[in-house]
Amino acid sequence: MTQTLDSDLRTTAGALAMDNLRAQIEGMLRDATARRLPARSESGLIELILLRGHLLGRVSDYEWATALAEQLAVETPDDGNAHLALARTRATLHRFRDALAELEEATRLGGDPREVDGERAVVLQAVGRYDEALAIFISADDLRSDFTSLGNLATVHADRGDTATAEELFAASRERYRGVSPIPVAQLDFKRAHMWIAAGNLGRARAWLESAVRRLPAYAPAVGHLAEVEAALGETDSAIARLLPLATTSDDPDYAAQLAHIFDGRHEREESRYWRNVAAARYDELVERHVEAFADHAAEFWLDAGDLKRALPLAVKNFEVRPTGRAANLVARATR
Amino acid sequence: MSDHGSGPRAFSDSALDITDMFVFPSPERSGSLVLVLNVFPFAGPTARFSDVVDYRFRIRPVSVDPSARVFDVGDTEYVFSCVFNAPAGGDVQEGTCIAPNGESLTFRVGEEGTAGDSYRVFAGQRMDPFFFDGPAVIRSIMTRQLAFTNPGYSTVAHQNVLSIVIECDRSAMFPDDQGPLFAVVGETAIAGAPQFRLERYGRPDIKNVVLFPKGFDPVNSDLEIRDLYNEEDAFALGPAYLGAFHSRMNANLAFWDGLDGKVDWPLSADGAHPLTELLLADFMVVDVSKPFSGDGTFFEIERAMQNGATHATCGGRAPNDDCMGTFMNVFVNAGNGPQLTHGIDGPAVPASDEFPYLVPPELNPPTPKLPSLGQAKTGR
User: Fold this and answer.
1) Which residue intervals are annotated with compositional bias (Pro residues) in the record (chain B) (predicted)?
2) Is this structure's pTM higher than 0.80?
3) Mind listing the domains of chain A with CATH numbers?
4) Which end of chain A, N or C, is more open, meaning fewer C-beta atoms within 10 Å of its C-beta?
5) CB pairs under 8 A between A and B
6) Complex ipTM above 0.85?
């Protein structure tokens, strides 16, 4: 299956694409330095930094992008693009209410309606308002049905648990790809895998994760989820080999938490304790600074560690931030 | 900006984003033609060519049809095709170029030129030679008034791009009975078969200045048209979007014409702008029989053709040529004056008269003065 998946689209080598992403960011930073870029371009720079943060699992990039967006909004308060950029950073750190407020401001200031609506749909989807998100994505797809619009539709159906419709849309989206960057395709495959993990089909999830990782080896969340699937299938050696480099290069504690869980399952208590301590310290740090963004995973972490007392308030906070079925389930597990 | 970020696809992947093309007789070697294709706007030090993109020049002979005052494009096509590898680790990237005469050259990116029997090639980072006040264009569109200042603000000054420079012996590439007028298009396309065109370039700022503004278009006022335009074959536009291209170009050219408060380009009864057909034939025309004559040759062949006159220069475009000054004066006042300026006289550092002509990249950018990065630290 994966061989077929990989032979159908020719994309730039993953390492080269990551070098180029870095080159784009560094080149644009030169102009941002002197404040020579118009807000529209600078919001593009912020988007690239957020993208790198996602791909490499770097919270520091999210924070950097946030700082840039806040500065941009102060310097150009009347530019819709500045508020759109700020909304994106707010949404990335799960400050969804703030993100929606910034999108309102972007609309008021004449931001590109299509871009603003697209971002609004992403936020609505994140907080479980799937019907509203779907309506926006359907209207964008009516206008021009392409890789992005079909991929967006697929993820909403995936979040609703409609895997059959989502699967068709994922396939249609992939067929419409007209670029050579491996990044959008790897992201799409990752989302598809995420759906199959939620649906409990680890075989399918694994195929799409392997596809994403083959295309973009540095894609940290895909590597992390592939390790998660491997561990669930009993292939813990391979999972550990994937996670160790991530746990040392990424500043996201998820990978350390995963290692702690796997070592615990293998009764390697000392290793497990080490990684649990690493994760705990980092979650504490991040919850202090960005509670909305890390309440979910930190709650999972403390649940796994058997500390319901620490897990519950985080699970409740997460449910406040986005009242989805998954969030409700997390609260239920923390109160059992 | 010339062709920087000329559409969503280009924005999302700089390695395929053509920023400029230059075509001019060699100032160094009589009888040679120079072709330059720049990609990757705002290139940082780690920028590389894609390993799945064919960076190519498509060249066809053209002749002037004096009655219709348009170019007749020949069927024979000459292609320079350059592809690159994906280097392992910190290795230097290598490329291979195949010329129309079949001669193949393998070269290392960044080295100062590799020579074969009939041509030489350079690929690597150079300083972006384009000069124009991009924000003033946006302000002009938003305010519907000419918003250029003197001095202007050169958007990409001291920024770097990835360049491919080819200098070929024209007699080894083109038969004697072809030319001397040739039309050149620069393209990025997915290498191998089937090929898919990602970007194309014929003349500067056709996409970003002439096609990008949507608000004046009476037919498709919400259509991002540039990626559709990029996918088309410049030598044979397909029928599917031809109407949309006409509508957008007619409307936007009329907008630019009206910015000085007078109409220099009266539209036809059906709303066609006199420049639309010429600009839709989006390729750069060069006369290889004429010597390099420095600046001021850009669009001269086209203007002479429109006026029913014989052109006097090599046409094409050299890196120091103020092509946007030329276009501003053509678009806004048809060359009838008064002379308009965008307030920038030339590149941040002028191109040289020696191969590879474009100047080395800016290696010492200003020190970033950015907001603090928060408290997060990478790694442990």
Assistant:
1) 358-369
2) yes
3) 25-122 (1.25.40.10), 128-178 (no CATH), 253-336 (1.25.40)
4) C
5) 151
6) yes
